[in-house]
Structure formats: structure tokens, C-alpha cells
Amino acid sequence: MTKTEKGSRKAAFSFLEANSGAPLPGLAASAANRIPRWLLILIVLLYIGHGLFYRDPWRGDDMLGLALARTTAEGLMRGDFYLLLLPQLGDLAWNQQGPLWTALLAIFMLPAYFWAAITASPVPIHLLDDLARIPVALAIALGLIAVWKATDRFARRREAQPVDPLGLGPRASAFGKTLGDCALLLTIAALGLVYPLHQLGTAAIELLLQALLLWALATAAETPKRSGIQIAFIVFASLLTQGIGLALTQIITLACVLLWVQPLRRIRQDFVSRWLPVMLGLLALWTLMVFLALPATRISQWWLGGISDWWIIEKSITRHTIVGSIEPWLRESLWRWWPIWPIAIFGLLSIRQTRLSRSPHWSVPIALAAVAVVLGLLGPAHWRVQHIVPIVPLAMIAAFSLLSLPRPIVNLVDWFAVTLFTTAGIFVWLYWTALNFGVPAPLAAKVPLRVPGIIGTANLYEILIGLIATIAWIALVLWRIRRGTPQLWRPVALSSGGVLLLWSLLATLWLPAIDRLQGQRLLAASLEQGWLQSASARLGIAPDLLEKQIEMNRDSLPAAACVGPSQQSTAFDAMAIAASRLPISSRPECLWRLGIVGGSDRETANAPASQQWRVAWQSNAEDRRGRQRYLLLERLQ
């Protein structure tokens, strides 16, 4: 045996060699066996269903999405259809997002408002929240289907087929469907995707639009004109959803692949002849409608608001610390994209001698992921395209990388999944038993400190769901250990199953605690009661009559009986709009306004004094010492 074969550094790292992980000639057809359809559908339904409905809206994008949608829905009920063209938060312009996603959420809310108007009854806020989550569920489901279809179409191409001189390998259709299963499981397995997907922010539709873009590019070589029209609508929808950041990412990617990737270079003229006029026509139509419905300054504010923080405009290259932005991005991405990124990296190492320009199944997702990361790091912070957008193309890259994945990496991913999710599952069960039964005692003593005011609410439903999820996880681990039949999707089965286990446990056993920590229902109810008491004394209206007025007809209130936004915290303003019935308005004559200060009592007492306001209400000790304190300020006589 030579030194290269044994005992050398080259031998120790031989699994990194390009040929060591390449698909073997005559890849067994059994390795391309698909996951049973019923099981894949069940996985998708469990992934979507848990933690989406029947809960409080959470802080951040969830509460902001509900506030924007509720503003649009109530505006539509008043006949303010211009809200379908540009979004608003209350009666203030919102320039960091397009109107499409907000309008979809609002349209699903309208049946509740129509029913309330017919029956002369108040609209339950929790019903509005659940109705708005229906398009989220649809977007996730369609996005996962589009991921599957895009990978399937790329895998059926001749360039993507594994080497098979003996004709013993799987057919192109079976190979494509199997890799589609792998890409879907890898998307589900991404640790940083499950939480934002189950919120009312734009993450769900971003997933859908990215997957649709890859699907259209997969068919562009055969149907360039049709794909050009489809991609024009996709890019326009991205502009009206997430704003300039996502649309610019897709446009730059299109330019790269049309100039670089060989199959797409040949159809570039036909593609652009359809894409460009359709895209410009849609953009001109939307701009014209905005100009007709709103002041000209409104559309200019939206465009300028989308790029106002762009570092090339406001900062010099020497002042912009790109390295400083890479460090937190890298720290977050290491867990957000696990287990996709290690699989994708080793797949890219295995093809480093491949001409990517002739391999669209590699070059197209690589271009999309790279552009999203670079543009996200250089662009404004509110674009955030570097977090969610690269996951879909990276999942596709990782799916093709499974063909050449070294066994050490397979074992690393599997054992990491077993260790992480088993430990996390045990931890969730222990805290649940400590909360509900006081066992173990040390943990039971810490629960009230971690979640003030929480009480045990054990019920049969959450116990059954928790037990079923735990048993299914144990069965999956045993299957993975014992089963010896090679399958392409085996390396990602544990990771996707672990995400399902942990999310199911958190969305059932820990949901009351998460609602207590991340939800603001109690805070909104307390704020609303504080305003009712203050407004009743100031306006001379009985509290019950005042409450009925804000439920049924806010327009009947006096002009000054409104609450101005804080203009200090978008999160606090969004909470007041989304989770309360307060008459929020930016009119200068409002007798009340929201405020926010630091956690000390001295700041609370001194902050409003110079502005002739007094504190009519303040948040209680639920917002712990050192955190910001929310205020309702009343104008002095």
C-alpha cells in the first residue's frame, strides 16, 4: 500500500476529492425510490398546521403583519380602495413593504367584517388573526410544491443525470421525483425557516416566489416565451410583496444566468422579448393607478423609502463595515441554514472541476443564493433578503449534493440531528411536567421566573400530540439505524423529522408559555382598559357605552377622542393597531398618544413632563426591570 493510500494527509482528507463522492456508474434504481405520497403529504400538513392557528399573534413580523392587514381590511370596509395599492400602518404610510401580501391577508379578513356588519356584532380579534393565517398556510403549501416541481424539472435534464453506462440506473422521471422529495425535506429541515414561516410576515410568500422563479427557470430553455411572461409576473409580485430588495435580487439573478448559463444564453432573446414588455407594462399600470388614487409624493416616498438606507448613497465604502455585517450574518446563518449548508458545501466541492455554465441545475440556484447573500449584506437592513431567500436555492443545491455526499458528512448530520432534537425534546417534556405537575422540583421553581404569570394548562389533546410526536421520533431514529437499503433521501430524514418533532412539541406543550412571552394579548387588553378609564373621565361618557362605540362605530367618537402613535416604536404601534380596538390616529388634536421609555421609574415619571402630557397608563411588572416600559399619555388641559 502506498503512502497516498494510507498514512498521509491526502488520504485523511480523501473524501474531499472530486471523484470520491461522484455518482457511481450504474446508480442503483432502488436508490431513487420515492417517499410514499401519503407520508409526504402528511409531513407537509403537520409542518404547516402546528403553531399556525389558534394562538395569539407574536411580537415582530407576526404582529406587524396583522396590523397592516387589519388597517387594509378596515379601510376596504370604508371604501378606501387605495390601500390595495400601497400599504399603511394605521393612517401612516408604510414604505418598507409592498401591498400585495397585506392585501391578500386583508381580503381573507373581510368575511368577518361583513358578518359583523350584518349581525351588528363586534369583530373578534382572534377570528381576524386566524382568517389572516389561511393565505399563509396556502403560501407554504404551494411553496413546498413549487420547490418539489423546480427540483424535479432540473433533475430531469440530461446534464443532471448521473453517469449510467450500463443502463441500470433510475429513469429520469423517477430520479427527478426523488430529488424533489429530497429538496422538500431539506426545506422543511432548515432550522431557521419554521418560525418565520408560521407568522404573518412575508416569509411564506417569499418562499413561494423564490420556488416559482426556480421552477420557471427550469422550463425556460424549452419554453422561453412562456417562462418570460411567468417570471415577469413573479418579479412584479416580489416587488409588491417584500419591496425593492427581493425584486432586485431576482432581476440581477436573471441577468447573471441569461449571460452565463449555456442553455439559457441560447434563448435569451426570446425570453427578454416577453419578459421586458410584460414587466414594464405591469409596473407602469401599477404606477399609474397609484398616481390616480394617491398624491404623487406617496409613490415617490415608497420608492425612496425602499432605498433610503442604501449604503452606496449615504455612506462611503470606507465607512461601511462590510466585515462587521458578515460576522453576525455568518453567526445566524450557521443555524438558520442547518443542515442545508454543510451538505451544499460538500456538493460544491465535489463539482469544482465541472463547467457550471453547462450545468443549469447547479448554476441557477448558485446564482440566486449568491446574489441574495451579497445584496442582503450590502443593502439596507430592512431588506433582509439574505435570511430567508437563499434557503430555497440552497435546498436545491443540497438535494443534488446528496448524490456525492461523503459518508462522514452523512453521519455528522444524522448524529447531530439525533443529539440536538432528542435533547431538545427531553428538555421540553421536563419543563412541561415541571409546569403542570411540579416535577422535577428545581425546574418547577424556575418556571415562574422564566415565564411570569404562567399556570399549568395540561389537557388530553396536547398530551396525545406530544406522545405521538415523541413515539414517531423514536421510531424514525430506530428505522434510520437499522435500515440498510440505500435511499437518496435517507441523510435528511432525521433532520426533517427532528424539526417536525420539536415544532410539534413547542406548538402544543409550550404554546401557552410562548403566547405569554411572545404574545401581547394581555398587554393590549390592559392598554385598552387604561384608555377606556381615562377617556370616560375626560369625555364624560360611560365606560360601557364608550367600549360599544369603539367596537361598532369609531366614527361616532369626538374628533379629539383618538390615540396618537408613539412614533418611537413600530412594534408598540403595531400591537395597539392589531390587538386592541383603540382609535389610533395621527391627527394632531388627539388627546392621547402612546409612549415608550426605559424600564426605570424615574424615566417614566420625567419623560412626558416637558411635553405637557401625563401618564394615564403604564405597563406593569410583566415587562421585567430593565426592559422598555409602555405608556399611554394624556394631554393636560
Structural class, by secondary structure, is mainly alpha
Mean pLDDT figure: 82
pLDDT < 50 runs, ≥5 residues: 1-30, 311-320, 599-607
Number of helices: 28
Number of strands: 6
Helix content: 55-70%
Oligomer: single chain
Main beta-sheet strand count, sense and barrel state: 4 strands, mixed
How large is the share of residues in beta strands?
Answer: under 5%
Rg over CA atoms, rounded to whole Å, is 27 Å
Gross morphology is globular
- Placed side by side, the strands forming the largest sheet appear as 3-4-6-5
Structural write-up:
This protein is mainly alpha-helical. It folds into 3 domains: 39-50 and 133-405, no CATH class; 408-518, no CATH class; 521-635, no CATH class. Helix content is 62%, strand content 4%. The chain has 28 helices and 6 strands. A hairpin with a 2-residue loop joins strand 1 (88-89) and strand 2 (92-93). Helix 3 packs across helix 27 and helix 6 (134-155) packs parallel to helix 9. It is globular, with a radius of gyration of 27 Å. Mean pLDDT is 82; it is low at 1-30, 311-320 and 599-607.
Question: What descriptive keywords fit this protein?
Answer:
single chain; 637 residues; mainly alpha; four-stranded mixed beta sheet; two-stranded antiparallel sheet; 28 helices; 62% helix; globular; disordered N terminus
Q: What's the structural blueprint in terms of helices and strands?
A:
Elements: H1 9-12, H2 37-49, H3 61-77, E1 88-89, E2 92-93, H4 100-119, H5 125-132, H6 134-155, H7 172-189, H8 194-197, H9 203-219, H10 224-239, H11 244-260, H12 262-265, H13 268-293, H14 296-307, H15 311-314, H16 322-336, H17 340-350, H18 360-378, H19 391-401, H20 407-437, H21 441-450, H22 460-482, H23 490-508, H24 511-518, H25 521-539, H26 543-552, E3 563-564, H27 570-579, E4 592-597, H28 601-606, E5 613-618, E6 629-635
Parallel strand pairs: 3-4
Antiparallel strand pairs: 1-2, 4-6, 5-6
